[in-house]
Amino acid sequence: MRETVVEVFSSLQGEGPYVGYRQVFVRFSGCNLRCHYCDTTESFQYDKAARIEKSAGSGQFNFIPNPLAIYDLAGYVNQLLILRHHSVSLTGGEPLCHTSAIKELAPFIEIPLYLETNGVLVDELNEVLSLIHIISMDIKLPSSTGQDYFSSHRRFLKLAAHKEVFVKIVLSNQSSQGEFAEALSVIADVNKSIPLILQPVTTHDEREKLSTTKLLTFFEMALECLEHVRIIPQMHHLLNIL
Ligand code: SF4
Predict the structure, then answer these.
(1) Strands, E, within 32-154: which ranges?
(2) Which residue of 32, 40, 171, 236 sits with most ligand 1 atoms within 8 Å of its CB, as the best mutation to test the pocket?
(3) What's the CA gap between 227 and 193, in Å, rounded?
(4) Which of these, 114, 182, 188, 222, could form a disulfide with 134 (CB 3.0-4.6 Å)?
(5) At what angle do helices 150-160 and 177-190 cross, to 10 degrees?
(6) Cβ atoms of 164 and 132 closer than 8 Å
C-alpha cells in the first residue's frame, strides 16, 4: 500500500518523560481534531511530497512524491536508524488515522514504536495496540478543542493501559479547574499510577500563556489524586530543534 507522509527525520523527543531521547519521527498527515494551540497545522494538508532527511541530524532533505510505498517508507526510516536511536515516533497530525500503514510498516522496524496520539480513536488503537511499545496519550480539554472527548479518552486509556502509557495535558490560560478535574478522574479511574505530564502551552500570545500561579494550582490538584505528576514544558523551542 501507499501512504501520504509529511516528513521523516531524526531528532530528539521534545515532550514528556522521554524528553531528550533520540528518535526517528514519522509524521503522518491529517488529524481528526482541531486544537486551538496546534503547532503542526502543516500536517493537515495533503503534501505533494514527503520531506525525507538525507542522513540523521543532517537537516538536509530529499522531497519524494506522495503517497509513499510503505516498503520505501520503511527504507527511509531504517536509513536514519544506522545511527543509534531510542525508538521510532509515529506522530502527526494523528497517526491513528493511518492504522493500515502502521500495520504494514511495523514489521520492518526493529526498535520500539512510540505512538504520539490525541487519545480519541479507540477502535484504531485496538487495531495496532500489539505493535506499539510506548503510548504518549493526550487528554484534550474541551477548552482546547471546543468538544468534550472525556468518554472516548476514558475508553482509550483503559485500552492503552495494557501497554506502557503516560498522559499529557496541555494547559493554557483558557483551561478551567472543572475540566481539569474531569481529566484527572479519567486517569485515576483507570490507574492512579499512570504518569501525568502537565505541559504549559507554547505560545507567543500573552493572552494564552498560563501563569505560574495557575500552573501550580493545577499541579496541586493533580498531586491530590495521582501518584506520578510532573510539569515538563516543550523542549524543541529551547533547543531550537525540529
Ligand atoms: S490533536 Fe494534535 S495534531 Fe491534532 S489538532 Fe490537536 S494538537 Fe494538532
Answers:
(1) 49-53, 61-65, 68-69, 87-91, 113-117, 134-138
(2) 40
(3) 5
(4) 114
(5) 30
(6) no
Residue with CA nearest ligand 1 atom 5: 34
Helix (H) or strand (E) segment spanning residue 71: helix 70-80
Question: Residue 216 is part of a domain; what is its CATH number?
Answer: 3.20.20.70
What is the number of structural domains in the chain? 1
Whole-Å CA distances, 129 to 5, 126, 163, 187: 21, 5, 8, 19
C-alpha cell at 213: 500561579
Tens-level pLDDT at each residue, the chain (242 residues): 999 999 999 999 999 999 999 999 999 999 999 998 888 887 777 789 999 999 999 999 999 999 999 999 999 999 999 999 999 999 999 999 999 999 999 999 999 999 999 999 999 999 999 999 999 999 999 999 999 999 999 999 999 999 999 999 999 999 999 999 999 999 999 999 999 999 999 888 888 889 999 999 999 999 999 999 999 999 887 776 76
Range of the domain at 164: 2-239
What the block records as the C-alpha cell of 81 is 536508524
